[in-house]
Amino acid sequence: MAASEKIPAHLRTRGSMEASDRREAYPPMPEALEVAVYDNHAHLEIADGENPLDFREHLDRAGSVGVHGVIQVGTNVATSLWSADVAAVEPRVLAAVAIHPNEAPELHQKGTLDDALQVIDDLAKRPRVVAIGETGLDFFRTEGPLQPPQRRSFIEHIRLAKAHNLALQIHDRDAHHDVVDVLLKEGAPERTVFHCYSGDRELAEILNANGWYASFAGTVTFGNAKGVQESLAVMNKSRILIETDTPFLTPTPHRGKPNSPYMIPHTLRFMAKYLDTDVNLLAAQITDNTFDVYGRWDDNPPTIRTNPVTGEPWDELEPSRFHAS
Ligand SMILES: [Zn+2]
């Protein structure tokens, strides 16, 4: 495994992922929240927009509007390593590690899925890795013959979450029934989160019945998201979380622009309005829930002053432009 003395600012760009040239500007800062919340799902390693923010710029902006921490989520070996490395030195970041359901079939075809799962197993032992994810099923992108390896990978991730006593973050796209089926058959981890919750009232009732969590992203603010909004109303308040899925799914009124954890206030304020409740009360409830699932960001503060991979001293972080300017 190649060891780098620097944590790179980004690992990939959204533009090349979507074969389009995204030259969008970041949206303006929203009004700050009074009660702190945490973004429980973001991919800060993806560069987006005409002037991409690096992870510390995202975190600085988030902190200035009351978003005090982020779970940085891996989707393959490289991004899971990056997530765990950043969490090891950055107090505002905890990490989730996994092979994404859209990556698992490809690795299976190359014959490297088991090696990749072994890396995830190793990373799960790091002190600031608090979740296995994102894993799950995606029948939107994955067709018939590739679904069995995707399912096998999901089952392995469930096993890892339980073995390491970590939370599980689930990616469920057009696969509600099968995701629930696998969870019930295998036995779900104690803390199971449906990331970017996309179900309807019926799925919300299933989550409530099993004590599973629904994490609401910017999609809940979209005009065509009636099922997600009805689910928000149905969910037990103790099982609601909030996320951005940065750089994707930017909430209204900035849909289509690059996303960042500092956009959480838009989603939170929409949720409070929809539920006809006070923003501060909802923020406090969601933060309690977040700590129940992942622990607190300062439970195991970063003590590492050496590169976790090479053992070299850690003075090589690339500077944050946001601080410098
Ligand atoms: Zn994600």
From TrEMBL:
Transmembrane segments: none annotated. A divalent metal cation 2 binds at residues 171, 195. NCBIfam families: YchF/TatD family DNA exonuclease. One of its GO terms (molecular function) is exonuclease activity. SUPFAM superfamilies: Metallo-dependent hydrolases. One of its GO terms (cellular component) is cytosol. A divalent metal cation 1 binds at residues 41, 43, 134, 245. It holds the Pfam family TatD_DNase. It comes from Pontimonas salivibrio. Residues 1-24, 304-325 are annotated as: Disordered. Gene3D superfamilies: Metal-dependent hydrolases (3.20.20.140). This is Exonuclease TatD. Keywords: Exonuclease, Hydrolase, Metal-binding, Nuclease. It comes from the Bacteria. The lineage of its organism: Bacteria, Bacillati, Actinomycetota, Actinomycetes, Micrococcales.
